[in-house]
Amino acid sequence: MRAASVKSCLTTFGVVAVFIVVLFGLSRINYLLFHTVVELFSIVIAAGIFMLAWNARSYHQNGSLLLLGIGYAAIAGMDLLHTLSYQGMDLIPGAGANTSTQLWIAGRGMESVTLVLVPLWFGRRIRERLVLAAYAAAAVGLAVLVFAKWFPVCYVPGQGLTAFKVAAEYVICGLVLVGLVALWRKRRSIDQRVGSWLGASMVFTIAAEVAFTRYVSVFGSANLAGHMLKLVSFFFIYKAIIETGIVRPLRLLFRDLKREQESLETTRDRLEESVEERTAELWQTNMRLSSEIAERREVEHELRSREQQLQDMMRRVVTAQEEERARLSRELHDEAGQSLTLLSLSLNGAVKQLPKGERSVQAEIRQAADLAQRTMDRIRRLAHGLHPPALDVLGLREALREMCVDVEARTGLSIEYTSDAAFDVTKEVGTAVYRVLQESLANIGKHASAAHARVDVHFSQADGMLRVRVEDDGRGFDPDAVDSAGGGMGLEGMRERLEQLGGWLELESSKGKGTHLVAHIPVKEAT
Predict the structure, then answer these.
(1) What are φ and ψ of residue 477, in 5° steps?
(2) How far apart, in whole angstroms, are the C-alpha atoms of residue 252 and residue 37?
(3) Where residue 452 falls among pLDDT bands split at 50, 70, 90?
(4) Each residue of 132-142: b (16+ CB within 10 Å) or e?
(5) Helix (H, G, I), strand (E, B), or coil: what is residue 298?
(6) Terminal-residue alpha carbon distance, the chain
(7) Range with the lowest mean pLDDT among 68-82, 330-344, 498-512?
(8) How many CB atoms lie within 10 A of CB 34?
(9) What pairing do the DSSP bridges indicate for beta strands 414-419 and 155-156?
């Protein structure tokens, strides 16, 4: 044992010896005053333990200290009643030696139960208000039993202690001994200083109870010895709880708080290291992400540039296609058409010049003339399909109307055509709209088996959008099925034409319910 610990123990026992000598002298002068001083000393210590435990409850994870404090608060109340009812005090009417002895047994019984529960409850939380209510109810109930004369008789003047009182003292000693054994088993979890003083207090409590089984008079020597031992017991619990709690609060009663603090410090150090490592990792990750973002922006910029180039190229390809179609249309119409027209006229003239008797030759020439005429008509339709002259001559509205009339004549499909009274668009937009409607009507004629179709061309000044709506009452189809099957090349072509102009295509269709198509094209009116 360290020198400081030896010196502290010697000092403590010296103080105890001085107290005993002084109190012994006081008992020789006035025993009632001696008894009152001893009991008030224990009451003050018990109340101090309660106040310390109750006010420190939020700092303790362990409920044992609070249980000890609440228990000793109830014990202080019983000891106060015991002191006030002691023989010779004459403060409580009807109270006497038996009443004070009964209250003594009640208080010591509560103390022994508390000293058993404290080590058994180590490491567990308690519901403080419930425990406080239970101890208060027990104290009030025992007091009522005593003052109502329902508590067993413990002392008979002139005869001494009853068998119940002696048996109760030994039961109390046994309970305190159980608590002492439980405290020993928990010694590794309890601060050594606190555990030593608390164990010593329990030993002196047992000794005091044994002494209280021997007296005949409440002013006798056995009673004096019992109170001296009780004083020492409470002085030691004062050393264990109050002094240690004030001087070294982090080591109060149990070492779990100190261990928790050390654990928190270790966790904090590890957390700081982890934060530093994580910060470094995040910084590196951030640098990588910044680099990746920069690369991605470059790639996106390159993709947008390539996409713009592709769109420009597609636009030039479409323009070149339309120009080539227009050239082919003109050549077919102007050259081949005119040649066939001249051929047809020549053949008809030749028929007129032949003698009437050459009927077989006339018939063959007429067949050749008819063939030339039919070929010329087919070439005109082909030229018209390649590039309708009405689109250049009459404008978009009339070219669309002419298309609808031509489709009606060739297919028998009834088409209702409506358009705005006045709008004009660029050649590029006009060609795209013409081709979209041309493909839509071709699809209706080939696949829809429709009897009626409706075409509406509308220009909105509010958003600058030209909308072409085409509806039919045909058999319809599943657009998702067509896309997943890789079909719908006509639809895909329409989408591509519109996307090149910044537009889009809406399509609604289902089997048996017809098809509804809307082409949206942002336009600037031609000047």
Answers:
(1) -165, 175
(2) 28
(3) very high
(4) beebeebbeeb
(5) helix
(6) 110
(7) 330-344
(8) 21
(9) unpaired
Q: Which of 7-11, 214-218, 359-363, 442-446 has the lowest mean pLDDT?
A: 359-363
If 0-12 CB within 10 Å is exposed, 13-18 middle and 19+ buried, where does residue 203 land? middle
Q: pLDDT tens, 39-72?
A: 888 899 888 888 887 887 776 666 778 888 888 9
β pairing state of 515-522 and 504-509? antiparallel
Cut 0.70: pTM above it: no
Residue 231: CB atoms within 10 Å: 22
Residue 466 phi/psi, 5° resolution? Answer: -100, 125
Angle at 385 between CA 381 and CA 387, to 5 degrees: 120
Q: Are 176 and 205 in contact (CB under 8 A)?
A: yes
Residues found in the chain: 527
How many other C-beta atoms can be found within 10 angstroms of the C-beta atom of residue 92? 14
pLDDT at site 454: 93
CA atoms in the 13 A half-sphere facing the CB of 195: 17
Q: What is the pLDDT of residue 141?
A: 92
Backbone angles phi, psi at 516, to 5 degrees: -125, 115
Distance CA 308, CA 305 (A): 5
CB 33 within 8 A of CB 26: yes
Number of other CB atoms surrounding residue 487 within 10 Å: 12
Beta strands (DSSP E) in 290-340 are none
Decide which of 23 and 70 is more confident: 70
Query: What would the pLDDT profile of 287-304 be if each residue is shown by its tens digit?
Result: 888 888 888 888 887 777
d(CA 366, CA 396): 40
Place of tokens 């420009």: 312
Instruction: Please tell me whether residue 43 adopts helix, strand or coil conformation.
Output: helix
State residue 339's pLDDT score.
Answer: 58
Helix 489-500 and helix 427-443: axis angle, to 10°?
Answer: 160
Rounded to whole angstroms, the Cα distance separating 242 from 287 reads: 58
Helix or strand or coil: residue 519?
A: strand
CA atoms of 53 and 40, how far apart (whole Å) = 20
Question: How many angstroms separate the CA atoms of 237 and 97, rounded?
Answer: 28
Identify the residue with better confidence: 165 or 262.
Answer: 165
Distance CA(115)–CA(378), nearest Å, equals: 118
**Residues 6+ positions from 128 with CB-CB distance below 8 Å:** 54, 57, 63, 66, 70
Both tokens of residue 114? Answer: 């508390």
Other C-beta atoms closer than 10 Å to the C-beta of 120 total: 15
DSSP string, 3-18: HHHHHHHHHHHHHHHH
